[in-house]
Each structure stands twice: as structure tokens, then as C-alpha cells.
Amino acid sequence: MPRDPGQTDRLIRRLRWDELDTAWLIAFAGLARDEDLAGAGLRQRPLRAGDPSASLLPAPGRARARIVARRQMVIAGLGMVPLVFQAYGAECTGRALVGEGSVVTAGTVVAEVEGPAANLLSAERILLNFLQRLSGVATTTQEHVRALGSSATRLLDTRKTTPGFRMLEKYAVGQGGGYNHRLGLFDRIMIKDNHLAAGDASSSARITALVRRAREARPDLLVEVEVDRLDQIAPVLEAGADIILLDNFSLAPMREAVAMIRGKAWCEVSGGVNHATLPSIGEIAPDFVSCGALTHAAPWVDLGLDWD
Is 170 annotated in the active site? Predict the structure, then answer.
């Protein structure tokens, strides 16, 4: 099937914060709270839940604090600030001082929070955990985008995400300048090597039949097929796949494969993608390059809560 420019919004996307389920995020923050205050996940829970350290404060006074970047980073996840406070049921408020996706330097105050001192102390770690994780993903993504240079190739994430954090991490990828490949198994037919093996699709004719069967079963979804050899490309193109994923191709065969596919289907490169290889991949200019390290290998960034 010829590549269709009208498919672009179905191929890749950037999750917006308003697309995330607020009720689910509050419940997710509640799970993190319960780990901290009540030993959630333990078979034997503590007899007394809560934060005994914060309860030692002499008076239930109010306090103010600033969330401060300790290094240069891309900020993501500030929308979690009010949701974490809501999960704690505390009369705390937060005010973002920078926009999502902003690049900030060390010492930048990214948000201000205020509320009962004991509640702020109890929520501090969980609040920072969300922000440090998501800003880390955004920062790592931006570093990889920069490695592509001026190439028209777009950088995609994968499903190699932290369990439970899938949508938040994919949102953070967008804030760092990357794009979301697919959100889950539900929104694309992705035929990989194990599907071909399980479907006994070892010959060209069987590959073609499997792809066509996929298109007939779910005409509403795009069909992507993973190949790891040049001789697999022709039958996949003949079957009418929308996207061909070149898995672990070295640079010379990758260049040949991209030339074979260009204009006939969308082309994605995956496997062995890192800061060192991205410039060369960008020169070959496939439509997309996907990288699991954006999420599975992103280090947390350092944000602190400085009290006034």
C-alpha cells in the first residue's frame, strides 16, 4: 500500500495532559502514598499507619516551599502536583512557575507549594518521585532528539515502560521532543518475529497471507511488520503493510532497505539505537526511529524541595 500522508496522526502522536485520566492519576498517587504511609505491598502491614516523624511538629502551622532544579533538565509532570496533594487529602496548593517541556538550568524554581507543614512533609517524597522520574524521561528524550541533528526522522518511544507509569512516561517523551509510537497493544496491529513464527509464516506467501489476514480482521488499525532481512521486505510490501520495522539492521543494509521501502510504506528503524548511532541513522533518514532507552534507561533528574 502506498504511503499515505493522511495517516500521520494515526502513526505517531504526543499525549497531552488533558488526555490522561485524572481519577486514575489520583488513584495512582494514592497507591504511592499508601506504600509510604501504610506499607502497601507488604503481606504484614504496620499496626499504625501514618508519618510519625511529621507528627512530632509542635504546632500544625502552615509552610511554604519551592521545588528547585539541581541541574539542567526538561520539566515534565507538574500536573501531578495538585493530584498528589488531593490523594493526601491535604489543604496544600501548588503553583507552577515554568511551563511543561521547559528547559531549565540549575537553581531554577519550577514550582511553589504551600500548606500545613506536616502534610507537606509527608507528601514531599512522593511528589518529587513523580517529578524526578517524568522530568528524567523528558530530559533523556531531548538528548536523543538532539543526537538526530537536523534529520527529518522522528524519534519514537516503545512499550518498554515502567509498569503503571506507561501513559505518564509516554506523555513525558512528548515533552522532551519525542513522539509516541503506540500506547499499547490495543491501538495497532504489530506483527513481530514471534508472531511470524507462531503463525508459521516462514515463506513469502505465508507472510503475505498473515498481513492480509490482519488487515481484514481490523481494517480500523494500521498494520506494522517487523523484518530482520532484506528479502522479507518485498512480500511485506506486496501484502500492503502500512509500516515496515527494520529490526537490528546495520547501516549498509539499512540504507538499502530504506531505499526499497521509501514511498511504498512508512519505514521505522529499531534496535541498537543510542546517542552514538542516531546521527548515522538520521543521515539515512527513515521516517521513524524507535528507542526503548527513552523510558527504560532514563535516569531520574535531581529536584529538591527547599523550605522558606
Answer: no
Q: Which of 13, 14, 192, 212 is catalytic?
A: 192
pTM as predicted: 0.94
Q: Please say whether the beta carbons of 4 and 263 come within 8 A.
A: no
Q: Would residue 160 show up in a list of annotated catalytic residues for this protein?
A: yes
Angle, to 10 degrees, between the axis of helix 22-38 and the axis of helix 80-88?
A: 50
C-alpha cell of residue 76: 515534565
Residues 295-304 have a mean pLDDT of 98
The one catalytic residue in 13, 160, 255, 264 is: 160
226 annotated active-site: yes
As a whole number of angstroms, the distance between CA 285 and CA 151 comes to 6
CA distance 117 to 101: 29
- Backbone φ and ψ for 25, nearest 5 degrees, come out as -65, -40
Class for the domain spanning 17-141+299-307 = alpha beta
- pLDDT, tens digit, 9 for 90 and up, residues 132-165: 999 999 999 999 999 999 999 999 999 999 999 9
Q: What is the pLDDT of residues 200-234, one digit of tens each?
A: 555 677 778 888 888 899 999 999 999 999 988 99
Looking at the chain, which residues constitute the CATH 3.90.1170.20 domain(s)?
17-141+299-307
CATH architecture, domain 5-13+146-296 = Alpha-Beta Barrel (3.20)
Residue among 157, 226, 242, 287 flagged as catalytic:
226
